[in-house]
């Protein structure tokens, strides 16, 4: 299969490409990535001989048309992804997430190529902190941030292109990923690398917000399954029953790194901060027989901490700049 992976130099995309090279020798992988601050060639260094990397914008219609014309399927990860950045400067999110997805859709429509669109549970808004309910495929869209609004818009475009033009697309909406190669702006890597660089971890507000954590490898195995066996036009929710509040996750990080559990700073809360996400992934499990392999969060977290310890050369050059930006924002 000739596979075009957009955003393949980012966190989830790079893990996807590594898994493809490792486990799918029949796949001929091309990565299209703008190599923004969030993408890095180093994330693909160990598979550089096995994949073609094209540096370019997913909103560049001529380039996307050419690459899609050479592919059998597209897995579309490319996006601006950080909520805090979206709150500070939303425009790049409109361009990459909305126009970018539109551009991919037009190309797959022209060439009759299969598309899997990777999206987020944040399109559903948030749930009550103390509730037992979870997001399902029929939960109404209710995005809170400029990031989630643009992801919701991109999902809607995909649905419309399936219905109106018969594009062969599927969508998946996944919860919070963790694992290797995640940018140090994100919660878990930020706290790990804060400890490793002698900084104090930073917790937004009281830390009661709940996220539903899933290991990136489990997310990507689900993406493969949906790509190969999913029903065209369907949306699949991906989640591993990993609900935890931020304060507990931060204390886990500190404990696993041999620090006092109270050795962190409270910083001002995020505007419009979503209270709780939780995924009901029953259809994915029952219809496509997916199940997460990383079922023990603390083990996965300890392995992730080990990865950041062992790969300081991957993240060290980004760290000071990321923390300077956080400091400007008072966090
Ligand atoms: P990331 O920010 O780590 O990587 C995004 C990649 O996309 C980067 O390599 C970047 O260079 C590239 N990119 C951005 N704009 C581009 C453009 N205009 N053209 C080409 N490339 C561009 O993001 P991630 O965490 O790996 O997320 C990947 C996808 O998964 C996104 O669509 C995101 O919405 C979705 N998602 C993420 C999570 C999560 O927890 N991280 C959960 C669910 C869904
Ligand atoms: O739910 C899926 C989404 O998960 C993805 O679509 C997004 O691309 C991804 O960034 C992530 O969004 P979140 O906003 O949940 O992730 P983030 O890592 O930014 O923050 C996780 C939680 O931790 C959130 O409640 C805010 C909080 N936080 C974050 C940072 C960076 C802190 O308390 N301190 C921090 O320093």
UniProtKB/TrEMBL annotation:
Its cofactor is NAD(+). GO terms for biological process: nucleotide-sugar metabolic process. Coiled coil: none annotated. SUPFAM superfamilies: NAD(P)-binding Rossmann-fold domains. Pfam families: GDP_Man_Dehyd. Keywords: Lyase, NAD. GO terms for molecular function: dTDP-glucose 4,6-dehydratase activity. Residues 4-304 form the NAD(P)-binding domain. It catalyses: dTDP-alpha-D-glucose = dTDP-4-dehydro-6-deoxy-alpha-D-glucose + H2O. This is dTDP-glucose 4,6-dehydratase. It comes from Mycolicibacterium sediminis. The lineage of its organism: Bacteria, Bacillati, Actinomycetota, Actinomycetes, Mycobacteriales. The gene is rmlB.
